[in-house]
């Protein structure tokens, strides 16, 4: 240290290391005056010697007071050098920056003070150390000592002023440093970072918007901070950036969309709302730039449509509608497969609103890109679309029917749809019971009722599962007789005997309606083929009349009393003209148990048939004896006097009768085989049970290990 005595007096050096701040301060003023004189004299070597001495003997000293003196001394040197200080910064600044890591909080405090005084002198020339200064300030903002934090804040404000007033700042070099620290959780560091982002964004010469994707995720991460102040600061910064995006012609939407999509699934409501709001603006502003990201955006907004927060739901719906309104083409990067993949996944969502919108998207794609969807992706989405028939929401079921109807516009896919529906109904009887009527009625509206019923009939005619075929035909028959959507179909069937189109439809349905005797009777009554109805009724055997038959017959008799069969009841006013109708109804009456409610309903109706319409001789006979047995004889005689051949010439009813009998015989054989199988299984189980009981419960007087000569399981006994 003696070599420096000629430059700086020993007393000054002693005071510079004194424990009292005032002595160190006065010594620093002496150093400042000495350096100023050296600078005026151009003694650069001596100035370097002084700086070197302060670094080696003071700032890197193991003694804390020496380190404090070294820091204030370096600041004094800078002040003394004034305009010439810039050329010595490489020697002055690094030791100060190193002191920010000192274990002694007072040393860290004086390091902030020293760098503050240095920066005030050199201003923009300190920018070359900006990244290191920023890194140090970032750490000091979370310092455990409140005084150090305060000193760091003062230094931070000065550095911000220096950056904003000059043009030497390099945003390109700064951004990687910022990005590294954006995910720090410390609240003081977060405030520090948001403050810098806001300041830099306010400088017109600095394009922070261009680098927004680098730190956008960090800002969104701060929206869920536990500190209200930090959330507010982050939101304010994001709002400012969003406004800039709206006013900027050149924005990199792609990278930011990826961040927003991830943040839209955040558990924090405020983060979700902000991200969805940004996505909403992007969809409106981005246009063609967003086409490659449509699937990602859709993956974010569809779940949010069902968010528990009302604001999020509203913005998500608006975004979804805006996105769907944009017409994009695969040639522009629109990925139909990616969209359908997202939609398919959302069809399994637990939320109804999300499932509904997913179906709207499929419907939209079918309208705009039907060929691509049907040819390339139908097999991928058909299973979830079929499962949607079992959805608990009626709205979902109605929408999925529209989608299926859109797919089934051509014959091939229409037949495939009917086949898949039948297999679905076959494997899930509950679906047929709960939703069958809704599905079939809606399909009749969307795809033409006659077309739908003809295809169902054609598919069921050769159905091997006879039990299912019978159940399905019964369901179709009830829908046919009760649904307002099928009124035109019923009107056409009423003309079966006089109109070619009615005849073709009757024959088409008859082939599968034969799976159910009551359905066949219903169809014949609807077609006014009363003569044939009688033959069907007369052909029923003992095995045909069972509990299921009575259940179906009960439904039919009650339907006769509805407006659908009003024409039939009016025809009873002319029993002479419609004697076969009268006979058919009496035939049904004779099949019903007399104590049943249905018997009384039909009996009451038949009692209202006017007797004046019959001729006097017939009337006498009808009124004498048993009226029900007499009326059948009268019907036979009237039939002989009326030539009904022309009425039935259009349809080959003998052939239809043979068709019905053949089908019913198949059902009888099927039922017989089922009964035999049950008896066989029951017998086997009984034998096994008896053997099991024989071994498990032996007689107390018989040793099962030594069977008697008369035992049924001895060799002699079995032979």
UniProtKB/TrEMBL annotation:
<dbReference type="Pfam" id="PF11916">
    <property type="entry name" value="Vac14_Fig4_bd"/>
</dbReference>
<dbReference type="InterPro" id="IPR021841">
    <property type="entry name" value="VAC14_Fig4p-bd"/>
</dbReference>
<feature type="compositionally biased region" description="Basic residues">
    <location>
        <begin position="667"/>
        <end position="677"/>
    </location>
</feature>
<dbReference type="InterPro" id="IPR016024">
    <property type="entry name" value="ARM-type_fold"/>
</dbReference>
<dbReference type="GO" id="GO:0070772">
    <property type="term" value="C:PAS complex"/>
</dbReference>
<comment type="similarity">
    <text>Belongs to the VAC14 family.</text>
</comment>
<feature type="compositionally biased region" description="Low complexity">
    <location>
        <begin position="705"/>
        <end position="719"/>
    </location>
</feature>
<feature type="compositionally biased region" description="Polar residues">
    <location>
        <begin position="678"/>
        <end position="687"/>
    </location>
</feature>
<dbReference type="GO" id="GO:0010008">
    <property type="term" value="C:endosome membrane"/>
</dbReference>
<feature type="domain" description="Vacuolar protein 14 C-terminal Fig4-binding">
    <location>
        <begin position="431"/>
        <end position="609"/>
    </location>
</feature>
<feature type="repeat" description="HEAT">
    <location>
        <begin position="92"/>
        <end position="127"/>
    </location>
</feature>
<feature type="region of interest" description="Disordered">
    <location>
        <begin position="667"/>
        <end position="719"/>
    </location>
</feature>
<dbReference type="InterPro" id="IPR021133">
    <property type="entry name" value="HEAT_type_2"/>
</dbReference>
<protein>
    <submittedName>
        <fullName>Protein VAC14 homolog isoform X3</fullName>
    </submittedName>
</protein>
<dbReference type="InterPro" id="IPR011989">
    <property type="entry name" value="ARM-like"/>
</dbReference>
<keyword id="KW-0677">Repeat</keyword>
<dbReference type="Pfam" id="PF12755">
    <property type="entry name" value="Vac14_Fab1_bd"/>
</dbReference>
<dbReference type="InterPro" id="IPR026825">
    <property type="entry name" value="Vac14"/>
</dbReference>
<keyword id="KW-0472">Membrane</keyword>
<dbReference type="GO" id="GO:0006661">
    <property type="term" value="P:phosphatidylinositol biosynthetic process"/>
</dbReference>
């Amino acid at each position: 240290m003696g070599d420096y005595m000629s430059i700086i007096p020993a007393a000054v050096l002693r005071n510079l290391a004194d424990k009292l701040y005032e002595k160190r301060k006065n010594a620093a003023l002496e150093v400042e005056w000495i350096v100023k004189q050296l600078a005026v004299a151009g003694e650069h070597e001596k100035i370097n010697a002084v700086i070197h001495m302060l670094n080696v003997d003071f700032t890197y000293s193991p003694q804390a007071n020496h380190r404090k003196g070294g820091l204030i001394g370096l600041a004094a040197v800078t002040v003394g050098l004034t305009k010439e200080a810039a050329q010595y910064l490489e020697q002055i600044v690094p030791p100060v920056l190193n002191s920010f890591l000192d274990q002694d909080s007072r040393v860290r405090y004086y390091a902030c003070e020293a760098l503050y005084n240095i920066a005030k002198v050199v201003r923009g020339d300190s920018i070359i150390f900006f990244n290191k200064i920023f890194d140090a300030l970032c750490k000091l903002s979370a310092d455990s000592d409140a005084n150090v934090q305060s000193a760091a804040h003062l230094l931070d404000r000065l550095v911000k002023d220096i950056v904003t007033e000059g043009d030497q700042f390099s945003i390109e070099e700064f951004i990687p440093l910022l990005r590294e620290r954006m995910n720090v959780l410390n609240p003081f560091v977060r405030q520090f970072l948001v403050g810098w982002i806001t300041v830099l964004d306010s400088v017109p010469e600095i394009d922070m918007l261009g680098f927004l994707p680098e730190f956008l995720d960090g800002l969104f991460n701060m929206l869920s901070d536990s500190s209200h102040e930090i959330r507010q600061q982050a939101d304010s910064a994001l709002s400012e950036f969003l406004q800039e995006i709206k006013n900027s012609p050149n924005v990199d939407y792609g990278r930011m969309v990826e961040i927003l999509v991830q943040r839209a699934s955040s558990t924090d409501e405020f983060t979700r709302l902000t991200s969805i709001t940004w996505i909403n603006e992007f969809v409106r502003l981005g246009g063609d730039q967003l086409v490659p990201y449509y699937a990602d955006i859709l993956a974010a907004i569809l779940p949010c449509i069902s968010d528990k927060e009302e604001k999020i739901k509203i913005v998500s719906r608006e975004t979804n509608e805006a996105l769907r309104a944009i017409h994009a083409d695969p040639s522009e990067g629109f990925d139909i497969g990616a969209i359908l993949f997202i939609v398919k996944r959302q069809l399994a969502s637990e939320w109804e609103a999300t499932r509904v919108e997913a179906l709207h998207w499929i419907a939209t794609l079918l309208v705009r890109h039907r060929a691509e969807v049907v040819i390339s992706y139908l097999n991928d989405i058909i299973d979830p679309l079929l499962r949607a028939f079992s959805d608990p929401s009626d709205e979902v079921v109605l929408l999925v029917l529209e989608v299926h109807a859109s797919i089934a516009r051509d014959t091939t896919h229409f037949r495939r749809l009917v086949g898949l529906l039948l297999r679905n109904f076959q494997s899930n009887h509950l679906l047929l019971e709960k939703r069958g009527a809704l599905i079939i009625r809606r399909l009749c509206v969307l795809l033409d009722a006659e077309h739908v019923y003809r295809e169902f009939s054609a598919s069921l005619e050769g159905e091997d599962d006879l039990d299912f075929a019978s159940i399905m035909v019964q369901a179709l028959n009830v829908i046919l007789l009760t649904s307002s959507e099928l009124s035109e179909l019923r009107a056409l069937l009423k003309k079966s005997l006089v109109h070619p189109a009615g005849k073709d439809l009757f024959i088409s349905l008859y082939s599968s309606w034969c799976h159910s005797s009551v359905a066949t009777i219903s169809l014949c009554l609807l077609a006014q083929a009363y003569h044939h109805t009688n033959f069907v009724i007369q052909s029923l055997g003992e095995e045909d009349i069972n509990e299921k038959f009575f259940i179906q017959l009960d439904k039919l008799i009650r339907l006769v009393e509805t407006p659908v069969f009003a024409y039939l009841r009016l025809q009873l006013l002319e029993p002479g003209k419609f004697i076969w109708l009268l006979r058919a109804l009496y035939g049904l009456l004779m099949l019903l148990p007399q104590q049943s409610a249905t018997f009384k309903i039909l009996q009451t109706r038949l009692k209202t048939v006017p007797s004046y319409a019959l001729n006097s001789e017939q009337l006498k006979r009808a009124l004498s004896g048993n009226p029900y047995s007499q009326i059948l004889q009268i019907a036979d005689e009237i039939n002989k006097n009326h030539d009904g051949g022309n009425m039935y010439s259009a349809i080959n009813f003998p052939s239809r009768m043979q068709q019905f009998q053949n089908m019913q015989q198949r059902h009888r054989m099927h039922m017989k085989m089922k009964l035999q199988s049950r008896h066989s299984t029951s017998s086997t189980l009984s034998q096994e049970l008896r053997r099991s009981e024989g071994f498990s419960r032996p007689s107390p007087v018989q040793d099962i290990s030594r069977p008697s000569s008369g035992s049924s399981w001895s060799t002699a006994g079995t032979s």
